[in-house]
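To: structure subgroup
Subject: Chain for Friday's discussion

All,

I'm putting the inputs and outputs inline so they're searchable in the archive.
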Amino acid sequence: MVERRKTINFLNLKRNKTLIIGMMFFILFLFILTTYGSAQDSSLEEEYAPIFFFEKEEQCYPVSVEYHIDHATLFQFTGNDPVEINSDVTMEELGGYTTEQYESLYLDNTIGTTKDDNIINDYSNQKITLGFTVYAHTIHGADDTTIIQYWLFYAFNKGDLNQHEGDWELVQVVLRQGSPVELMYSQHHSGQKTSWNQAEKTGTHPHVYVARGSHANYFTSYSGTLGVASDHVGANGFILKPVQYTIIDLETQTWLPFKGMWGEINSYEDVYLGTSGPVGPMYREEGLMWNQALNWGSNLPELNPTILLFEWIIYNFTTIFIVIFIISLLIFAYRRMKQYKSEGFGPRFFSFLYIDGLNMKSIGNLLFIAGIIIAFLSLIYPWYGITASSTSSIYNTEGFIDILIIDGLQGISLNLPDATGPTPLGSALIPFSLLISIGIIFTIIKTLGVKESFKLGKSYMYQGIKLLMPIIIILISIVLISVIVNDMIPEEAQESPAASIFDDVAASPFGGSSINSIDSTGENLQLDWGIQTGGILLFLSGLMLLISGIIERKAKTVFF
């Protein structure tokens, strides 16, 4: 009986030992499999790591979130006075705030605010010590699809239209059957996609052109010039290469599930104005960028070659215009020199100076001179403006503020509430003042040696029409403003009172005033709009040159 029990125990021991050894091998197999998969992901992340091109005036670069957390206090936003939660929060503790009840939490970098450059200055002083960090996240999807996400954190977002603490941006590489096929870049609340073959790259490393301040990502160094974002992009600054930054596996970060915001928020309006801190990678665009990365990227607008051409022209507009002007001037000078050798330029050289009494040619030239003076004056005054006043709880303007300004010096400028001031639309604004000034100067030069008033009048009329065109284009644009704004409003908001605010502006483009309800509480927004002093002067100068041209053609005088 004893012998049998010993045998059974021995057999159980052998079975248990075999089971333990089997379990150990299984765990080892899982460990090797996981390690291999992780190593394979790391290899892919390094292979396709982007090269980042920054604009020359950029001050913030991709940095570890540790910099932000080390200087931050965790608050809860209440709409009134914030409640301090933790003044010395750790990365591990942040990872515990994962449910919806923590959405109102925010990490406030106490070194500065959105109203100053203290955070930027502090970061700049430590930039070399801090180094550069990029967070990578690899997703293995269906149909042998692999998505490599490169998340970038910036200490501060100093965009032209909004400023906020902390900034999260994304570069996404899509591989199918192991080969790269598509790129998807984040830009503000949207982004852009293109095929791998169409993108600029060095070897397997795609080029990313980062907008100054806003850190939106573009495919070319001249993109970002169209639209309201006012992004400044260029390949004229610091180039951050893969060998210069550390790639960290994002999924291993304990702070990743943090549900709150990575920057200060002072009021509900901050959310609408883009001055509140952003949410983290897991929650960007309501979690779509993380949980449905391919769907998010697939719905982005495609990189359009036609738009790229327009952006290149606008980006280089001043240079192109000056080159064309110089070529035209050289051609004109060549022709006039030939005339000078055969006929001379007449006693007064410039034909607009033939003023000798009360006659049609003299009146035409006097009108031309007066019109030119008025045209130059128009460049220093606003041409068109829209001002607004609101007492809404969402935003109180405390009086009238300029929200849209069009003039000769800044072009078209948008002034969002709580921004730093009027901001030109587009990073390479079209210099209206340069166009008009050079056009006027060239018209004056072209009067050199003109023998007949009929020919001189044609030149005056042509310049007059060019001076009238900006005001005509502005008025047409204002008429279409309600259509443009309504296209930008989400479909679910089309029926709201705010959606029809600009209808009155479009109906009376020359000027007017209206009071509109902007929310369900009945609070109002008052708009005033119309042609300003500069616009009136510009239109008057164009009209004067047009009339002066008609008079000169009617005079039919030979000057010399």
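Points worth raising on Friday:
Residues 1-8, 29-36 have pLDDT under 50 and may be disordered.
The first helix runs from residue 2 to 47.

D.
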